Amino acid sequence: MAQNPFRKSQLVEYKNTVAGHDGVLSDQSGSTVFKPCKETEIHFYESAAAHPAFAVYIPKFMGTLSLGTDPSLAAATAAAVALGQSSNPDQLPIVDQISETVLKEDVWSPSGGGKIKTETAIVLENVADHYTKPNILDVKLGAQLWADDAPPAKREKLDRVANETTSKALGIRIAGMRIWEGTETLQESDPALIDGYRVYNKEYGRGLTPETIGTGFETYFQIKKGDGPSKRIKEIIKLFIRDLEGLQHVLESEESRMYSSSLLFVYEGDDTALQEVHKSTTSPFLTVAPQEGFSSEDSDDFPNVAPIQAMKLIDFAHAEWTPGQGPDRNVLHGIKSVIRILEEIL
After folding, report:
1. Among 237, 288, 200, which Cα is nearest to 228's?
2. What percentage of the chain exceeds 90 in pLDDT?
3. Are 68 and 101 in contact (CB under 8 A)?
4. Global model pTM greater than 0.90
5. Which of 71, 232, 263, 288 has its CA 20 to 30 A from that of 166?
6. Minimum mean pLDDT among 21-30, 151-160, 211-220: which range?
7. Is 10 helix (H, G, I), strand (E, B) or coil?
8. DSSP labels, 145-180
9. What is the number of other CB atoms lying within 10 angstroms of the CB of residue 268?
């Protein structure tokens, strides 16, 4: 089987992160992301293959890459580079080399949002790839944000965050946004505008209440106060609702626990690119009826159609399958809240 070697020195900083930890990298094409992670997240992604209906709603997992300084460890394979470039399975590389120095996650190890202390990165598809100007939203899920192995101090801290924000009441919190506004605005006088994107950090979401969180979603969809969503934005919101309802259906039939996971939303922020998609009368994203197990972002069956939106469940550092314990009501509570908010915007 052919393999395409990848070295850490060939990777670049990934600039589309809106929440989470530092240190995320991408290949130079931008099609693949390399996220530092711990063993539990690797195991969860690997185990998702046994849950195909669920796997539709998470980024495509392509393996792992060692971030160690030893050249023999740094040489790994990047599946995403060949993925989608070849229809011959024998030509698709595999990424499976895990450094022996990866940390065992026997207990909760808080990082404070900085870089995770690990020498292994998980290799995933870049959900924001193929968009001209991706508008990105990260929504943290759950009223309970800690897993059973979290020490008392961590539980107390995360419970305080939940109680002081929208997490406790709604099971969701806006963790970050990145919205395309264009390069005409004078960036020197507006530090929140970076390369034409207006960036909202976690403090923005923490300042919202259950009564005002709808305005946060309206901001993401660039709906001005007093105005309703445009026809195009309505269609995008409806597609997000469809994806959320599909994920809800799947999780109601699974037995799992996912703490501090997030919903990642992406839609096309470039008006010209969006107009081109809308000109196509054959676009499956604008005409297909809701169906179980279909994600509107997954355009593999429609290679000539550019995506206009995507929704994925991400961040599985504290996730596991829990046979016999029933569905994850904590996560489902948050998903239902998002559906309700989006329906109210319509």
Report:
1. 237
2. 49
3. yes
4. no
5. 232
6. 21-30
7. helix
8. ---TT--HHHHHHHHHHHHHSSHHHHSEEEEEEEEE
9. 25
Phi and psi of 117, rounded to 5°? -80, 90
172 strand-pairing partners = 141
Which of 57-66, 79-88, 332-341 shows the lowest mean pLDDT across its residues? Answer: 79-88
Taking Cα atoms as reference points, which of 265, 201, 277, 174 lies closest to residue 232? 277
Which tens digits make up the pLDDT trace of 144-195? 999 999 999 999 999 999 999 999 999 999 999 999 988 765 555 676 788 8
Strand partners, 5: 77
Distance of CA 176 to the CA centre of its chain: 11
Give, in degrees to the nearest 5, the angle at Cα 116 between 255 and 126. 65
CB neighbours of residue 172 within 10 Å: 30
Pairing label, strands 32-36, 61-66: unpaired
172-180 vs 5-6, strand pairing mode: unpaired
Contacts of 316 (CB under 8 A, 6+ apart): 40, 41, 44, 45, 58, 258, 261
Among 126, 158, 122, smallest CA distance to 141 is for: 158
> Helix crossing, 231-252 with 329-345: angle to 10°?
160
Asked if 342 contacts 217 with a C-beta cutoff of 8 angstroms, the reply is yes
Q: List pLDDT tens digits, range 86-137.
A: 333 333 333 333 233 222 333 333 334 445 556 788 888 889 888 999 999 9
Q: How far is CA 272 from CA 53, 224, 269, 308, in A?
A: 34, 20, 9, 12
d(CA 67, CA 58): 23
First to last CA, the chain: 50
Task: State yes or no: pLDDT of 343 exceeds 60.
Answer: yes
Q: Is 246 in contact with 312 (CB distance < 8 Å)?
A: no
